[in-house]
Amino acid sequence: MENEELEPMDKVNLAKEEDTSGAPDIHALNQKIQQESAFIDLLVMELNKVIIGQEHMINSLLIALLSDGHILLEGVPGLAKTLAINTLSTAIDVDFSRVQFTPDLLPADLIGTMIYNQKKEEFSVKKGPIFANFILADEINRAPAKVQSALLEAMQERQITLADTTHDLPKPFLVLATQNPIEQEGTYPLPEAQVDRFMLKVVLDYPKKDEEKRIIRHNISKEGFPKTTKVISADQIINAREVVREIYLDEKIEQYIVDIVDCTRSPQDYNLANLSALIAFGCSPRASISLAIAAKSFAFIKRRGYVIPEDVRAVCHDVLRHRIGLSYEAEAENINVETIINSILNTIVVP
Which residue, 42, 56, 113, 301, could crosslink 231 as a Cys pair with Cβ 3.0–4.6 Å? Predict the structure, then answer.
């Protein structure tokens, strides 16, 4: 009852104290996060050499990288989607493959195939471009369902099966896909099972006016386009992922995450009966897992050893927007997923 008289920010600060008071040695964990997250500044600095603005996209790429999750970038052409992914792979000492998805692409062009060697009289494996640390699936919705489904095993199990042999993919493994929402001719919508494998779906907007002026100067300067250098190794990424798992997530924050996800399934239980007719299907437990680990990664980027409600809210749209199915009624009323998520976040009580 006392908390009801506090201002929203006071509630957040009180939540911090309550969440961290029972945590095992939270001070030592904070110090560890401060040390382990030092490379974030180097990585962001390299990305900012090439990418102007788009802070949310850069943060989302880092969250996917730290969370061992895949990311889908959606936006009109020219918003630096491909450039950002290329730059990220250049700044990290890993193998990188770019696959331009087209209607005539075959699964074998992606995962590889078995080649018969006449001299040895045996089959040998010819690995495809998916056997790399970072995979850029450019315009993923331009390839047919057979090619899209070839990614499923790789994205979920981190392995590929050729003939009767299973091959493990290298670590870290990250699929970064782009999608153009405007031009639908000759495209193949991603099936729900495929979309759900992406931890985050980030929708990009146009840059601000001052950022666009900097972009123009950046691209026409006589010094030429800046080059990115490798600043971190694959081992550092793998180690950082283990540290992210150590970040403290209080039970109250866990309940907050569960309430948000459950509200997409049964909005009437949270005084949001008006959303029931707008949601065809809600989020699966994979959304709860992704929301928790993404919030931990966001806390890591912010140099904190514990998760606060703002971390959950910061990643909520990117984690949920591709996991909520809209009904025909919602589409008829021009109600989008963003509106539904905002209604949920504004209704669920912040711990």
Answer: 42
